Amino acid sequence: MKRYKTLNEYYRHLFGEKIFKVPIDAGFDCPNRDGTVARGGCTFCTVSGSGDAIVAPDAPIRDQFYLEVDFMHRKWPDVKKYLVYFQNYTNTHDHVDVLRSRYEQAINEPGVVGINIGTRPDCLPDETICYLAELKERGLHVTVELGLQTTYEDTSERINRAHSYETFTDAVKRLRQYGLEVVVHLINGLPGETHEMMLENVRRVVADTEIQGIKLHLLHLMTNTRMQRDYHEGRLHLLSQEEYVAIICDQLEVLPPHLIVHRITGDAPADKLIGPMWSLNKWEVLNAIDAEMLRRNSTQGCNYHAKEEGS
Fold this sequence. Notes:
The chain is an alpha/beta fold.
């Protein structure tokens, strides 16, 4: 039994059985790559966004869905329910009619019970949020995953995030007006951020917004990214496994006990990863986090206080 609220536990309670989260590349771009708000993208981002592990990103959306499902069924042949995950780049960065035409190619397939949408807080106009609310009314479990990465404006500028923290808090408020589930993404190990700053990122988010889930990522330094320059010029410290485990455990302790922890580490393709190389041993990292929580005799929320959430 984990000492924090896992996504697997949450989905099993919600749907009554194990489900697949099926990643899809729907062909969207990003507003700080195409010049809408900036160019070049976030300095940590690869040319494929966050979709490096998608089986067939260039295939039609419906084909991608079945290719991914077939691949997952090799390990879990009895799973019959699926969440469609529009993952890489910014999956609300277009007119709502375009979103509708692409989403509907996958969400109407047999067994689909929900949709997860990876996006940015500056790409959620009212008409898009209304469409997402419509999907919820149709019986789909709708989750909006907002890339924030940091609450510090200096860091945000350094990594070319090209939106403010205020834009994020406003987006969460507008999504929650329709009862849409919101998950925030934060990255540990960004240039210039200390252990205490990473902890404060979590404190601020849960104090300032009504989120339902969180993804805590390790910064993966990848080839062909602008962040390589920071690393080679000495402005980026790659975290050790011991540092990362300590940060994650401290963050878990200040989260609200009910918040769903969607991720506490991540995957990166070995052929594109510059570091930290220890992150390739994902299960070793997860086991180390479990062992440290056990050693501390701590649980998610043991250092959380309601006043941190504004109540």
